Prior knowledge:
34% strand, globular
Amino acid sequence: MISDKATIGKNVEIGPYCxxxxxxxxxxxxxxxxxxELRKGTVIGKNCLIDSRVSSSGxxxxxxxxxxxxxxxxxxxxxxxxxxxxxxxxxTNNLNTNKEQIGGADIGKNVFIGTNxxxxxxxxxxxxxxxxxxxxxxxxxxxxxxxxxxPAKFQRKV
Length: 158
């Protein structure tokens, strides 16, 4: 189902069984694979790839040239900077333990997030960072750093 209130750019490919709600914006030359759910207010830049089974809970902003791989969950309020790569099954959160919306993560430009990472609500990840697979990120990460572990810890500068 694609809402007639969504804005779809030029040369956009949308796979089968997608749900694209009102006020979604998809930039030119972007590919949306099958079973993707984009809720109200999701904005995706140009030249992006949103892989199968990605879910956006809405009011997210995804920059240009971003790849979000299979089965990732993009919590409300998430921002992803240009040229970032989100590996499969990455999960973000926007609620605290009292179920109050704190806001999604703010992921910088040129960031690589490894498979099965979990990113806590309200976290900022700087530009040019690398997060290792299976990491739980519960602290802000400055620009140009490599972090991994559970909880994620600083490892080195990029």
